[in-house]
What we know:
Family: Belongs to the 5-formyltetrahydrofolate cyclo-ligase family.
CATH architecture: 3-Layer(aba) Sandwich
Catalytic activity: (6S)-5-formyl-5,6,7,8-tetrahydrofolate + ATP = (6R)-5,10-methenyltetrahydrofolate + ADP + phosphate
Low-confidence stretches: 6-10
GO molecular function: 5-formyltetrahydrofolate cyclo-ligase activity; ATP binding; metal ion binding
EC number: 6.3.3.2
Shape: globular
Strand order of the largest sheet: 3-2-1-6-9-11-12
Strand content: 15-25%
Number of helices: 4
Keywords: ATP-binding, Ligase, Magnesium, Metal-binding, Nucleotide-binding, Plasmid
CATH superfamily: NagB/RpiA/CoA transferase-like
Largest sheet: 7 strands, mixed
Amino acid sequence: xxxxxxxxxxxxxxxxxxxxxxxxxxxxxxxxxxxxxxxxxxxxxxxxxxxxxxxxxxxxxxxxxxxxxxxxxxxxxxxxxxxxxxxxxxxxxxxxxxxxxxxxxxxxxxxxxxxxxxxxxxxxxxxxxxxxxxxxxxxxxxxxxxxxxxxxxxxxxxxxxxxxxxxxxxxxxxxxxxxxxxxxxxxxxxxxxxxxxxxx
Length: 200
């Protein structure tokens, strides 16, 4: 069941995060699996090119490794983030589920060689984790700033795609000067959609 996320009045990012994380933790395994399967089907709409930056969903994030396998089946080579010191993310190539290892913050990341932060510029498509995204492309992350620091190094014209549940695609989120907008959203029910980036 989809419950609208919109609430009257202004809310700050902390309030948004609390609300969304609480809703995610209340989802059943069946609801999560159904959304993950829909996202894996929806990612087929992407013309991915040779390189795609993605991530392994954890802690209730929408999606699954099936989405990564769909990208591989389409011929893409996939870069996944590797955690390190605060700053821009490092990346390593995904070679399949068997090549993942447990990492900091409960994440899964490739066990292969770390390729550095600059390889994000190879990707024509970057799938970005988000707690929510609005119709202007404003993305709400977890607040650590890793992706805001990383996306500034993306190649010009790269498609930045926020992956969220349907109810996490909202009309308007709070925005700060350092927030980088995305141009696309992928949701289980709506598939892949371009965002207009307008202020209205």
